[in-house]
Each structure stands twice: as structure tokens, then as C-alpha cells.
Amino acid sequence: MNRKTRNALELTGIYGSILIMFIVIIYPLLWTFGLSLNPGSSLFGASMIPENWSFKHYVWLFTDPESDYLIWYKNTLIVAFATSLGSTVFVSLVAYAFSRYSFFGRKYGIYAFLLLQMFPVLMAMVAIYILLNLVGLLDSLLGLILIYVGGSIPMNAFLVKGYFDTIPRELDESARMDGAGHFRVLFTIMLPLAKPILAVVALFNFMAPFMDFILPRIILRSPENYTLALGLYNFVNAQFANNFTRFAAGSILIAVPIALVFLMLQRYLISGLTSGATKG
Amino acid sequence: MESSGIRAHSTKLATILSIVPGLGQLYNRRYIKGSIFLLLSAAFFIVFYDILNIGYWGLFTLGEIPTVDDSRVLLSQGIIALILTSFALTFYVANMIDARNDAKKIQEGLQITSLKESFVNAWDTAFPYILTGPGLFLLVFVVIFPLLFMAFLAFTNYTLMNSPPKNLLDWVGFDNFKALLTIPIWRNTFLSVLSWTLVWTFVATTLQIALAMYLAIIVNDPRVKMKKLIRTVLILPWAVPGFVTILIFTALFNDNFGAINRDILIPLFGSGVPWLSDPFWTRVALIGIQTWLGFPFVFALFTGVLQSISKEWYEAADMDGASRFQMFKFITFPHLMFATAPLLIMQYAGNFNNFNIIYLFNQGGPAVKGQNAGGTDILISWVYDLTFESSQFSIAAAISLILGLIVAIFAFLQFRKTTSFKEEGKM
């Protein structure tokens, strides 16, 4: 009896905590969706459950001649594809070398990578701004892509190296015995076996440009070069509380696909991260 | 095993000869390697002579004629010269070691390899460098180069009033750092921003971890049903792009028409809280939001670890009559910490530099009297303001350097916790 009540109390506590977290998590998200359906544009007077809801803001984003939403979408896609491709290629080459070869400078290389992944590229923003300005890559997508790819190398190389390390060495050693060259081992054995982690690296680098706001803010100047994050930010920043509902609509349109992909893939990321951290 | 045909081969001579890269290798009768080394070093000097020359001149003087010499260009050429030199030095040392090792092998009676074999050997040794080369190149120019540039900038006098190409920059030694510590307005600002940065890092991150641990443990309880659904919802805040949620929270916390004041606090308590206009409440809101944003990642990590702890531990503890708290303290907690410590340190480091939330929520505001940073500015957002709002490039760079030093402390902790690269990579 006593045990039973205790059990019941504990379960109530557990489900209670979970319920509170659910409300705290879901409320802001639902609120955003509700606001995006408000016909008005300002935060004032908008309500979570609008009386006469409409998809007016969604339509505006896609059809209004003043809307740059589709251009931003195109820019973001360009940056995302290029970053994803570039960083996967560079990262897998670097990780292969660090995982399978011993060479002069290897140990310091790993130290340097560990150190560099702690320093956000952002810390050198003064320099990046001045330098890109000097070489004429300010306000260009290429400049942004280069910085994304370069900045993604240390952290991702670590992740992929950790995965490569778990592939048994006997496999590539026996291939070598049979006369396979370095590149052959890489392309026919390592890369196919490492597909899951490579997919994760590619995807996360693909998503980064959709989520990052600050680098585009520093680098991109003209509205036709904006990425989605920067463009949406300007909806609310330009005249605060004026275009919030439009911002909400634009955000929902990127948040939903990204969140879906993310939820499907996060367990790969977690396993990659933990194995990378504990095993190397 | 007498020196049949092998002349007395001197390691010393090989090492000394390789003062000119390649000669030592030629002496070792590694003709291909030797000539490649010779060619490379000759090419290096011919191609880069100008850059090195101008680079070092520029690095020392930062230019002599205003409007003609652009100090920024000269400084970056100087840094390129430095990077080139350090690569050359590494190569140089490697070349000497290589000559010595080869000579040793010959002494020990190793056969000189045939031409074809030595080609294969060269390709084998060069291969890892070919793999890492492109990545390294990009890394150097996109990450290391800007960081160095920033470090050098901290020792110049680059401000809005004194900006190239109209003016020349000068080396001013530690003046910027001195200014930060002695000029009252800088000192006050610096100290208050620094202390808030530390408080912010500690409180926000620890709350994140504590909440994540609590939730991970209760959801992992065998009596809880629908675990998958619960975990998915709990991970949602991580899945939605951060800048979107932060801006949503800015609206929710809006003093006048935000839902938190208008729909919750005023109906319940009769008065709202000045979330965006009072530094204290802005800080409270920021910590709350960061906890909301950051706990799912740690939660997911912890959940993974919890599922991997063997049941036997708990059964054994149960037999010995351990209380639930003892089980947590001696089994669960150590397991969680052991597996995730490096990643948790990263979380602290990440929040220390968490520019996004500070800037997007209230742009570091509200403004505070007697200092030139906002009430919730952390070091990195202050650097942003100094760079892009008031063009105080040098002071901003100096602060970035201090930031870097603090990050280095985190990195040091991380190294000590990570055993990853100790045993790997033998082949």
C-alpha cells in the first residue's frame, strides 16, 4: 500500500515535469504559427488564435513583387550546396589521412584541430571583415562559402576521423596486400563504409546556412545577396513589431523542413559525437 | 656483416650537408628525393622572394607613405610571409631529420632501393600530405590567417579617425590593453562585461546541463510510457533554427505587447516585468531562453549514455541495499560525466562565445550609464559593436585576444579530458 502510493506519487511527479516541459516547449512554437495566420502585420493586436485567419503572409512571400523571399531561398540553396559539397570533400580527405597514416606533424595537427574547433570563426570577425573587403569578396556568396567550408573543417574532420577509426584496419590492410593503391582504398573501402557519417556531415553543413545569421550579417550587404536568415531578420529589425507576422510566416516555412530533417538525423549526430569524444 | 661495399657512411655529414636541402639526400644516394628537395627550395626562394621581402618590410614599418602604402595590405602580406616562413622552416627541419635517418639506415647496411621503388616510396610518404594539403590550405587562409591578423591588429592604432588607406597604422605595443585597464570608461565597461560574461557562461550552461540530466533520468525510468514521443518533443528546441526561436522569444518578452506580460503576468499578478528595459530582467530572460535552447542537445547526449549503462550495475547496488540517491551518485553521475565531459566543456566554451542569443534578443541592451557596452553585452557581442558600430578596430582586436586566452583555458581543460588521440593512428 505504502509502496503503491509512493509509486503513484513518483509517476505523477515524472509526468508532471514532462507536461510542464511540453507546454514550455510547444507554446512558443504554436504561438508563432498562430501569429503567422494573423491578417494584420503588427505584434500589437495580433493574437495566438486569430478570429479571421488567413494565409495572406505566406502568399505575399511568394508572389509579391517586393518580396525577395525566393531570391533569398535561391541564395541560401547555392551556399548550402556548395558548403555541403566542399566541406564533405575536404573533411573526408583530411580525416582519412589522420585516421590511417602516421606522418610528421600528425599529432600536432590533431591538437590544432581540437584547439581550433573551440575558436569560433566569429572571433576573428574584425579580420574577416577587413580581409574580405581587401580582396573584394565582401558582399559575395563566394566569400561566405569559403568561410563556411574552412570553418567547418576542424570540428567535422574530428567527427569523421572518429568514425574512420571504428572501421577495422584489417579491411584496408588486406586490400593493400592485394595491391590496391591509396586512393583506391579511400574510394572503394573507406568512403562507402563511412556513408552514414558522411551523410550527416553533408546534411549538417547543408543546414548551417539556413540557420546561421551572423556571418551573412557581417559579409553580405545588399538585399539581393541575402540568405534567408538575414532577410527574415530584417523583417523584424527594420521596424520592430511591424512585420512580425510576416517574419513568423517566413520562419515557419524554413523551420518545419529543417526540424523534420533534423529530428530524423539527430541520433546519428549524437552517436558520432559521443564516439568521437570517447574513442577518438 | 662486414662493410661489404658500403663505405663508411657518416650520419653527421649527411645532416650537415642537408643545410642546403637536398644535398644530404644526394649524399645518401637518394637521387630523386635529393633533386626534388633541391628544386623545391630553389623554387621557394625564386617565387616567394618578393613576397617575403615586402612582407617583412611591411610587417616592421606598416608602410611609410600615407595614401600610397595601405597598412592593412602590408600587414596581411607580412602575415603571409610569416606563414610561408614557418612552412619552410618545418620543411627544413624535416629535411635534416630525413637525411639523418636515411644515413643511419645505410650505416646499418640497408640496401639502396631501386629507382622505381624509390618512386613508390616517395608517393607513399607524400600521400598523407597530399590528402591534408587542400584542407590545410583553406584552414590556414580562412581560420588561422584571420586569427593572426586580429592578433596583430591588437597592437596597432586602427580606429575610425586613423584608418588606412588615408592614414598609416603604427605599432603601439600594449597601449590598447593598457587603455582597457586604465582609462576609466574602458575599465568600467571591460570589468562589468567580463564579469557578466563569466556569470552568464556558468549559470546558463550549468542550468542547461542540470535540466537535461533531470529530464534524461526521469524519461529513462522504466515505468514511463511513450518514451519516443516524449524524447522527440524534448529535442524540438534544438531542431528549430536558433535565430528563429530567439526572435520569437524577443517578441514574447516584449515589454508592452509580448504575450508573457500581456497574457500571463498582468492577468495573474496585475503588473508586467520590464524584460527588455531593465538589465537585471533581461539577464534573467536570457538565461531562461538559453536553457530552453541548449538543454536538448545535452539531453540527447545523456539519454544515449544512460541507455548504454549496464543494468547489472544497478542490480548489484540494489542487492547491497543502496538507496536511489546513492545509485545516482555512484553509478549514474560518474557514467554520464565520464562519457560526456569533453562535450560539456564545449558547451561552456560555446556559451562563452554565444553571440547569437545576446545580439538577437536585445542587441546587448538595454543601455547602461557610464559604460560603452549594453547591460547584457558579453565580450564577443561587445567586440561586434566596437567593430561595426564604432569602428574601434584595435581595441576590439585586443578584447578578442583576451577572449582567445580565456577560450584557451577551456581548450586546455578539454585536452586533459580527452584521451582520444593517445592510442590512435599507428600504421
From TrEMBL, chain A:
Signal peptide: none annotated. It is found in: Cell membrane. Keywords: Cell membrane, Membrane, Transmembrane, Transmembrane helix, Transport. SUPFAM superfamilies: MetI-like. It is a multi-pass membrane protein. It comes from the Bacteria. Residues 73-265 form the ABC transmembrane type-1 domain. The keyword Transmembrane applies. The chain crosses the membrane at residues 12-33, 77-98, 110-135, 141-164, 185-207, 244-265. InterPro entries: BP-dep_ABC_trans_perm (IPR050901), MetI-like (IPR000515), MetI-like_sf (IPR035906). Belongs to the binding-protein-dependent transport system permease family. PANTHER family: GALACTOOLIGOSACCHARIDES TRANSPORT SYSTEM PERMEASE PROTEIN GANQ (PTHR32243:SF34), MALTOSE TRANSPORT SYSTEM PERMEASE-RELATED (PTHR32243). This is Arabinogalactan oligomer/maltooligosaccharide transport system permease protein.
Automatic annotation (TrEMBL), chain B:
The chain crosses the membrane at residues 36-59, 79-97, 136-160, 193-217, 229-253, 284-306, 327-349, 393-413. Its main location: membrane. It is found in: Cell membrane. The keyword Transmembrane applies. The keyword NADP does not apply. Residues 194-414 form the ABC transmembrane type-1 domain. Pfam families: BPD_transp_1. Keywords: Cell membrane, Membrane, Sugar transport, Transmembrane, Transmembrane helix, Transport. It is a multi-pass membrane protein. Part of the ABC transporter complex MalEFGK involved in maltose/maltodextrin import. Probably responsible for the translocation of the substrate across the membrane. Belongs to the binding-protein-dependent transport system permease family. MalFG subfamily. This is Maltose/maltodextrin transport system permease protein.
